[in-house]
Amino acid sequence: NELSEQLGESLNRWLASEGFSNIYSELLSTLSCTDEILIVIETNNNLLKRLPWHLWNFFSVFDQAEIAIGNLGYRQINPRSSSTGRQVRILAVFGNNDNLDLVVERRMIEGIPDAESIILESPNRQELDNCLWDTQGWDILFFAGHSQTENESGRIYLNESESLTLVELQNALREAITNGLKLAIFNSCDGLGLARDLANLHISQVIVMRDLIPDVVAQQFFRDFLVAYSGGRSLYTSVRNARARLQGLEGSYPCATWLPVIFQNPTTLALSWQELVQPNPEKNSKLSLASVMLVSILVTTLVMGLRLLGLMQTWELKAYDHLMRLRPDEKQDGRLLIVTITEEDFQLPEQKSRGSQSLSDSALSLLLDKLNQFEPQAIGLDIYHPYSIESKQSGLAAKIKNRSNFFAICTPGENNKSGIGSFPELPPEQLGFSDIVIDSDGILRRHLLSMKPEPNPNCSAHSALSLQLASHYLNQKNKAGKYNSKKELELGKTVIHRVPTLMTNDPGNIVEKFWRSRRGAYQAVDAWGYQILLNYRSHHGSPNTIAHTVTLTDILEGKLDPGLVKDRIILIGVTARSVGDSLTTPYSSVEDYHQPMPGILAQAQMTSQILSAVLDGRPLISVLPFWGEFLWIGSWSIVGGIIVCYLKGKLHLIFTEITALGILYLSCWGFLVQGIWIPLVPTVFVFLSTGSSVMMLSHINKESQQSESMPENNE
């Protein structure tokens, strides 16, 4: 005891001398007493390794500090990634037990929670070597038994007849370290040589005994260390706590507290027990949640900016068409009957006077007579019928003059052009235009309801034929239309919201106009007039079968079922391809359904859309406001960043991302079925872009931290 006190006093006088005092004073001024601190003595001198550094006065001031020994030559080992959510794997080797009681330590090992312990009792060299090569990897290697240091190298005794140095196991030990071995504990005598050999293999931490150690001291140290470490304390404070508790045995075993020592690879820090249970080798390289949020906001803002410039409009419209085609089929609209004029119908005797340019007065007169006898609700003629002397002489003009349910089309004309008139006998409320709005890619996606035409003596129509027919039908159902204070059309209780537009005569300031025009995939589109999105009705995979269809020949030959006419809207138009009145729809872009839509069927789709919205509650297609789209796209951006940031394993990451994209795809499809156009393309773009950005930044962060934490490898 006297000698140990003298050595402790000499050690502190040495460390307080002029050559070292500035180190001590600098540490006192820099560090906090509440910090957990690791002091590593890097040396290859065996005498310095044997000194009781824990007696330094520094450790009486900093009670969360611990001492460790490290070699001058070291490097970092990057172990292979291990799976998450597993138990700590411990390889426990109980060697030759002559005059030793190893039962206590074995029970301790077997009782460790959250651990998978493989116990080798008095193994031979081949058994131990094979276990160290286990590809699942080990977290902790524990040895209890006899050991000693010979010529600076450590030797362990496996059984009564076999012993070996760790140099003879270096290949297996190197593989075990590569596979994840992080901590070796030799609860045996004279372990400095063992620690030296393992330190040369660059293992993270080794706990050994400096000198001979009695059973009772070894058992109590291991018990106290195990309780503290598995209970959540760090490895360093667990060793300090277990060593301090050995002071109670120093009455029988002087200097027992001097025996345990940590050998530390300065390039790594010890993992906690919880981190061993759920290893996270890239923890320090992962971005924080706040960083992921910041990246998500930046990516979302960038993508929304690209949308505002219209750079994503083409892709979004293609995605919209794709989802439109995938919607479930609907039954035909029983409120409509479509009368088609085919190539064969143009060969009828009644049609010879007009050929294939229009419907002759004679044919139209006969057609109206046939239809009116079955009391249709309304008749809409989607054929230009210029006024002629023939119309007056044939009596057609007089026939339609008193028909309030007959509607025809005319063209208002633009830029002071005269336009195309039709039936001057009809009042303005029975005239409609058939103008349509085609997107830049040639596809019909919008429905023009009304516009303010220039003054024109030939045509004063300001509403579409489809709106005129639907309004007439709804009036009979006591669902008259009107415009509200926001200049939006109300039919019954249904409000028809227009496509956002940026027109100079819109009410509101320029900022309000700007944001109102930036909704959905359409960016600054010239949505002149009163436009809405066209919610196609598809029957048997085709929008061309929206309603029952009969030909002009069938009607004139008396083959018409009266039940198909009574109380219905009758739409009359040309389907003959020679006329060239065909349109491209979202359904036309698929090779299997490459079917242009005749103009009369487009009018039927538009009329049906209005009737279904008012009478059936079938949704019109709407888009989210700008802030709603920002939140939707931003939320998926955050999801993409979090998945990459917090999931480990390439296969797990790929599976999760594919699953998330599937959920996104189905969500956009489901919303569109319900009439809400949710942006798909920009959402997928931010999801993948944010994930890629987080992955790249995490990699940069990891490399930066590794370079900062890598000490110089001095010899």
Structure, described:
The protein is of the alpha/beta class and 715 residues long. The protein is built from 23 helices and 26 strands. An 8-stranded mixed β-sheet has the order 1-2-11-10-9-5-3-4, sandwiched between helices. Strands 15-14-13-22-12-21 form a 6-stranded parallel β-sheet. Strands 6-7-8 form a 3-stranded antiparallel β-sheet. Helix 8 links the parallel strand 9 and strand 10. Helix 12 crosses helix 21. The longest helix has 29 residues, at 681-709. The protein starts with a helix and ends in a 6-residue tail after the last helix.
Q: Largest sheet, if any?
A: 8 strands, mixed
Strand order of the largest sheet: 1-2-11-10-9-5-3-4
Number of strands: 26
Strand content: 15-25%
Low-confidence stretches: 280-284, 709-715
Class from secondary-structure proportions: alpha/beta
Radius of gyration: 43 Å
SS summary, helix count: 23
- Basic shape: rod-shaped
**Overall mean pLDDT score?**
86
Please report the distance between the alpha carbons of the first and last residues: 36 Å
Estimate the helix proportion, in percent: 25-40%
Secondary-structure map:
Blueprint: H1 2-15, H2 18-30, E1 37-42, H3 46-50, H4 58-61, E2 65-70, E3 88-94, H5 103-110, E4 115-121, H6 125-132, E5 140-145, E6 147-150, E7 153-157, E8 163-165, H7 170-178, E9 183-188, H8 192-200, E10 205-209, H9 215-230, H10 235-245, E11 260-264, H11 273-277, H12 289-308, H13 313-325, E12 336-341, H14 361-372, E13 378-381, H15 389-394, H16 396-401, E14 406-409, E15 431-432, E16 446-450, H17 465-475, E17 481-483, E18 489-491, E19 494-496, H18 510-517, E20 530-533, E21 548-551, H19 552-556, E22 569-574, E23 582-583, E24 597-598, H20 599-616, E25 622-623, H21 626-646, H22 650-673, E26 676-677, H23 681-709
Parallel strand pairs: 1-2, 2-11, 3-4, 3-5, 5-9, 9-10, 12-21, 12-22, 13-14, 13-22, 14-15, 25-26
Antiparallel strand pairs: 6-7, 7-8, 10-11, 16-20, 17-18, 18-19, 23-24
Helix pairs in contact: 9-10, 12-21, 12-23, 17-20, 21-22, 21-23
